[in-house]
Hints:
mainly alpha
Amino acid sequence: MERLVGSFTPYIKFEKMNKKIVLTGAILIVASIVLGAFGAHALREVLLPKDLASFETGVRYQMYNGLALLAMGLNANAFGFSLKWVFNLMLAGVILFSASIYGLSLDVLLGMEFKFLGPITPLGGLLMIFGWFSLIFKLVQSKK
Length: 144
């Protein structure tokens, strides 16, 4: 950490962040906070406990992946390899996983059948897992 001359305020110098990944992570985080608050306040009285628990699972995984993307994007230079595949797999996974859970949880409330989303949820989870394995594989291969 460096210090500003004449100041006691420390700062961290990010040499090369990936703005796209940081922005996406931040959007996922904000959306998960909004959806979490919506679930805690507006849905608590209208959803069955199992549907509310499923909705909260979607919110939680969206937050986890948003935080991971934020951290990766802020430190993109430190990896020494492209995060393109990791980013694409994680983003596609969280969208399919969380959005399908939201649809399945809210189908009764919305008066629509979203049962067709059932097979999409594990596909989204699989894409998230592939994104993490892609990161692990690249880290193991990396010389940095």
